[in-house]
Write a structure and sequence with these properties.
The structure holds two protein chains of two kinds. By secondary structure, chain A is α+β, with helices and mostly antiparallel strands. Chain A has two domains: 1-25 and 165-383, Naphthalene 1,2-dioxygenase Alpha Subunit, Chain A, domain 1; 28-143, Rieske [2Fe-2S] iron-sulphur domain (Rieske Iron-sulfur Protein, 3-layer Sandwich), CATH 2.102.10.10. Chain A has helices at 8-11, 13-24, 107-111, 115-120, 146-149, 152-163, 180-187, 193-196, 201-204, 213-225, 230-239, 321-349, 364-377; strands at residues 29-33, 42-48, 51-58, 61-66, 81-83, 94-95, 101-103, 125-131, 134-138, 169-176, 242-248, 269-275, 279-283, 289-299, 302-311. The longest helix of chain A has 29 residues, at 321-349. By secondary structure, chain B is an alpha/beta fold. Chain B folds into two domains: 6-84, no CATH class; 91-231, UDP N-Acetylglucosamine Acyltransferase, domain 1 (3 Solenoid), CATH 2.160.10. Chain B has helices at residues 14-21, 23-27, 44-54, 73-84, 212-217, 226-229, and strands spanning 6-12, 33-37, 60-66, 92-93, 98-99, 104-105, 110-111, 116-117, 122-123, 128-129, 134-135, 140-141, 146-147, 152-153, 158-159, 164-165, 169-171, 176-177, 182-184, 187-189, 197-200, 207-210. In chain B, the strands form four sheets. Chain B has an eight-stranded mixed β-sheet. In chain B, helix 3 runs parallel beside helix 4. The chains are: A alpha+beta, B alpha/beta. At the A-B interface, strand 5, strand 10 and helix 12 of A face strand 22 and helix 5 of B. The structure holds FE2/S2 (inorganic) cluster (FES) and fe (ii) ion. Fe (ii) ion binds next to helix 8 of chain A.
Chain lengths: 383, 231
């Protein structure tokens, strides 16, 4: 089955900008973990499709704003994470939880705004919602509700699993040279671990491709007919995010620290959640620890892959917890790099006359997303 | 003259092999050496527990020698287990190391060949200082650390527990390195590092561990690379 995705979808900067308007603006975006925003004045900064965002805790309430001062557009918070009130470092304006300028030093001496102008000063605010410890924001004022993007069963699972996360988090960013869509396609490709990860992940988890004949038939019909209407587009969208127990683990290692945490489940399975468009949560240890992988698109050929490692909630603090997280990072790094290398090679080889991909039956999941995506990008449906 | 107690060397890795092979020099022929060599650093304490409990604690001293594995927790497992059993552990200093008389060095420490420990410096228990490393005036290195070969720690630097400082790393004077850091990209570091920071050539941007507690104390620094730090 020939993919509808032209090479431009992966390499063109114009395309990337259109994608931001048609896809990233209407969709809810994962931005971070609530555990890292637990205290008054704790914040994170992110960049969503070129828009700088700050999420800040105001006395327990999380707010999302554009991270640019209303005075001269200086970024308010300059670090990725921290604890600091929402104050601009340039001329000292301080913002309140509604985004208004709460304190403007020397307001009457040097700024002397007209009353009406002064009242309009404020930050651009975005909608924010949480599912358990997962924080999402939305860039559009009138977009779909979060529970239209994800189905109820998934929301319940995500709430459950993310509430099991401990508050000690290891965080790092890999700056990769690939289009963000290659990452979600790769994650939905159950056939590659046997080859690409033959000496790493596949040793422990024997991933099987699921040849779901009904789903394959539907994907083919959909490929031939396209999206009927808005409602079908939404139904399909909700179906793109799913997960749960994936494959049994061949041999689950046990470690002393397992006793110190409240395991998320009692099954020795590999857990996997794919959250469209760009979030992946997995547990390779049967619920003792988790990786949260977020593909933040920077440009057509650049993606910041933000990685968080957490264990399940501690029953009590234990001395080796930092070493445990460090070991997870070192362990998973090999697999991540194997994936990045292949995706970066594909990205580097693409050019405007490159052929379209030819998808096999097992890639029905990728095919459905691509067909849906192209209908959105070609304006046949709007979200 | 009483005979010094025999030494039981337990572990594996670079420091273990170095001590084993230079023992005649280290002991000046006066002490006997017994080796307990481990196959791996996993679950080290359990692996040696039985052997340790058979040792007579008045006639021997022990030295736990495992490299920086798991932020030095693997070595601490053995050292801690030996302490629980009432065994005495010792500190070993290569004869070519230069140690200021007013420096302080804890137990189960190793000071490798050619290392220099300056006046007023202090080294906590179970910390290994490798070949040719230099610890400057007044620097404080906490317990359970690893300082790689050729690394230099500037004067008055403070290094927290369970820190790994790789080879050929230079820490500028007066900085603080929080606990649980691992710095493994050679270069000069001139600013303090928050606890739970990992700098490694594998990771282009620094890795941080965030806890609600640590975020309170120090502002984490983003994206420090050795290149930027050495500017
Ligand atoms: S730019 Fe922020 S106060 Fe001036
Ligand atoms: Fe993969």
């Amino acid at each position: 089955m020939q993919s509808r995705m032209p090479p431009q979808a992966y390499i063109s900067q114009d395309w990337f900008q259109r994608e931001r308007e048609l896809l990233f603006k209407p969709l809810w975006q994962f931005v971070g973990l609530k555990m890292m925003l637990a205290q008054h004045n704790s914040f994170i900064t992110r960049n969503i499709g070129g828009i700088p965002i700050v999420i800040q805790n105001f006395n327990g309430e999380l707010r999302a704003f554009e991270n640019l001062c209303a005075h001269r557009q200086n970024p308010l918070q300059t670090q990725a994470h921290g604890i600091r009130s929402l104050v601009c470092g340039y001329h000292g304006w301080k913002y309140s939880s509604d985004g208004k300028v709460e304190n403007m030093p020397f307001e009457h001496e040097v700024f002397r705004y007209e009353q009406q102008e002064r009242e309009c000063l404020g930050l651009k605010r975005f909608r924010l919602e949480t599912i358990g410890n997962l924080v999402f924001i939305n860039l559009a004022a009138d977009s779909l509700p979060l529970n239209a993007q994800f189905n109820q069963a998934l929301i319940a699972q995500l709430e459950d699993v993310s509430n099991a996360f401990d508050s000690e988090v290891l965080f790092t960013t890999y700056k990769t040279k690939l289009n963000w869509k290659l990452a979600y396609e790769n994650l939905r490709d159950g056939h590659h671990p046997r080859y690409l990860h033959s000496r790493s992940l596949y040793q422990n988890v024997r991933f099987q491709v699921a040849m779901d004949e009904t789903a394959i038939k539907h994907a083919k019909q959909y490929h031939a007919n396209g999206t009927k209407d808005h409602q079908q587009a939404l139904d399909l969208l909700a179906g793109f995010s799913n997960g749960g127990p994936d494959e049994p683990i061949k041999t689950r290692e046990s470690y002393a620290w397992h006793e110190y945490v409240e395991r998320y489940s009692d099954k020795d399975w590999y857990y996997n959640w794919l959250i469209f468009p760009n979030l992946h949560i997995a547990s390779g240890s049967g619920g003792y620890s988790f990786i949260i992988e977020h593909h933040q698109p920077v440009s057509a050929d650049r993606t910041d892959v933000m990685i968080y490692y957490v264990t399940a909630k501690k029953k009590r603090p234990y001395a080796t917890s930092a070493a445990v997280l460090h070991a997870h990072l070192m362990g998973a790094d090999t697999v991540l790099r194997e994936d990045f290398e292949v995706m970066e090679n594909i990205q580097a080889g693409l050019h405007s006359n490159a052929a379209h991909a030819v998808l096999g039956d097992y890639e029905y999941g990728i095919s459905a997303i691509q067909d849906w995506y192209m209908d959105v990008m070609e304006g046949k449906v709007t979200l | 003259m009483t005979q010094p107690p025999d030494l039981v060397l337990i572990g594996c890795g670079i420091v273990f092999e170095t001590i084993a092979s230079t023992w005649p020099q280290l002991s000046q022929g006066e002490r006997k050496l017994q080796l307990i060599r481990l196959d791996s650093t996993d679950d080290a304490a359990n692996a040696v527990n039985e052997q340790l409990s058979l040792l007579n604690n008045t006639e021997i001293e022990i030295f736990a020698a495992i490299d920086q594995n798991a932020l030095n927790f693997a070595r601490l497992e053995i050292y801690g287990q030996a302490r629980l059993l009432g065994l005495k552990s010792t500190t070993l200093i290569h004869p070519s190391a230069i140690i200021a008389p007013d420096s302080r060095i804890g137990e189960n420490c190793w000071i490798g060949a050619g290392a220099i420990i300056a006046s007023g410096a202090s080294i906590g228990n179970n910390t290994l200082i490798n070949t040719g490393a230099r610890i400057d005036y007044g620097a404080q290195i906490a317990a359970n650390c690893w300082v790689g070969s050729g690394a230099s720690i500037g004067q008055y630097v403070k290094v927290g527990q369970h820190v790994v400082i790789g080879s050929d790393i230079n820490l500028g004077a007066n900085i603080t390195v929080g606990r649980h850091c691992s710095i493994d990209m050679p270069g000069a570091y001139l600013t303090s590092l928050a606890e739970g920071t990992f700098i490694d050539s594998l990771f282009p941007s620094a890795v941080h561990i965030y806890t609600s507690k640590s975020a309170n104390k120090t502002m984490p620094q983003t994206d420090i690379t050795a290149k930027e730090a050495s500017k």
